[in-house]
Amino acid sequence: MDLTGYKLVFEDDFNGDALDTSVWQYRADGARRMGFNSGEQVRTAGGKLIMRSEYKTGRFGEGWYSGMISLRKAYLRGYFEVRCICSRCIPGGFWSAFWLQAGHPYEAEYSRGGKGGAEIDIFETFCGDDGKPMLQTNLHCAGMKNTAHPDGFDSLALSSECVADACDKMHVYGCEWTEDEYRIYRDGVMYARTSFGDGVSEVAQEVILSLELPDTTSLDRKNVSEFAIDYIRIYQK
Length: 237
Hints:
The protein is an all-beta fold and 237 residues long. The chain contains one helix and 18 strands. It has one helix spanning 108-111; strands at 7-12, 24-26, 30-32, 35-37, 42-45, 48-58, 61-66, 68-71, 78-85, 95-101, 119-127, 133-142, 153-162, 171-177, 182-186, 189-194, 206-212, 225-236. The longest helix has 4 residues, at 108-111.
């Protein structure tokens, strides 16, 4: 990744004793899919941000718990990257995600085919049928002109690739969002790019880290997963 012309505008290496809630917020606390998001599932330890999924009795009652955070400040364009180890690859389990979301990417009148905002899933780590981690990049928007459902929701599965050691080793995942396209990187190498939609997003978007709850699960209640983030950095021109 060539950062010529960019400058670092935000960095968090999570070396503090707790998450800095002056710049981060706990997102979507409460019921979500088959369980709950809760700030109590997010901590810092050993210079890393840790999100933990587990079955327990927490502040919303008994059930599966996980975590999600987002930056309080939204960003328009730039290069966004994290260095992390994804949560364990378990079929039907939780998955790690790094994504950007506009305020109304699923409503045609606001999204306008993506120019008014989109959801950019820089990576989501699912478990493949062979038990190995599959890293996917997906984009979502609404109101595209040249589509069978112009008032509805459109998605692009941009990339799906096995990264066998994603749950055991630190990798750097990034997205360069320019005026013309989205470029997706792993360990500094671009492996996917797109201008999906009727135009690249022209609005500031939330920057989100999450350990996602599945809709349903047959996991043993003793199962625990953790998503470990070493740092996040944002660069802009």
